[in-house]
Amino acid sequence: MKRNNGNYWYGLFICLLWFGVVKLYRFDEYKYNYNIKKEVLSEKPEFKIKRYPKKTDYWVELNFIGDSAKYEISGIEYEFLNSKEFKLYIEAVDTVEIVEYDKRIFSIKKNNVDYLNYSKAENYKNKGEYLMTIFVSIALILCLIPILINKKYDLSFEIQKVKIKYDYMFIIYFIFIFISLYKIKK
Q1: Angle between helices 118-148 and 6-24 (to 10 degrees)
Q2: 127: domain range?
Q3: Is the pTM of this model over 0.70?
Q4: Angle at the Cα of 58 from the Cα atoms of 30 and 113, rounded to 5 degrees
Q5: pLDDT tens, position by position, 92-113
Q6: What does the alpha-carbon distance between residue 153 and residue 166 come to, in Å, rounded to a whole number?
Q7: Is residue 132 domain-shared with residue 69, that is, in the same domain?
Q8: Do 128 and 176 reside in the same domain of the chain?
């Protein structure tokens, strides 16, 4: 009996495509092409909120003297902004040192006090990428095994006269997921 490995070839293609896009394309260009500037705020930073049915976006808009562009602190950087102290100590006409890329601020300092914890935000991003790399690597291996091995092994359990079949690939995949989640939790 010949086994159809079409779905595993699709899975292999998707995994390789993910590695090609995420690992070879530079999503973190801001790490290498950022600008460090000293700027003077033209007005007090404005905290913004936009509500959607299932989520809410928060960000801070900043305007500087001599620059008509609006800069913002948003996304994961906003999560690691010390907003209480930021609201308390950052005022209009304050001189601040910013690290920005494409009008997005990744660090903001006033009098050598950093109000945006860039290292924690970056660590958070790296953990997410690391977790996805683990999952896609496991999926890649699990798609390769059936392509290379022509036999199909099943585990079956009988529960109240209902036969449930599990493909060994899914059992191995879930074991790897639990192991990787346990390691990331540490």
Answers
A1: 150
A2: 6-26+123-185
A3: no
A4: 60
A5: 999 999 988 889 898 899 998 9
A6: 9
A7: no
A8: yes
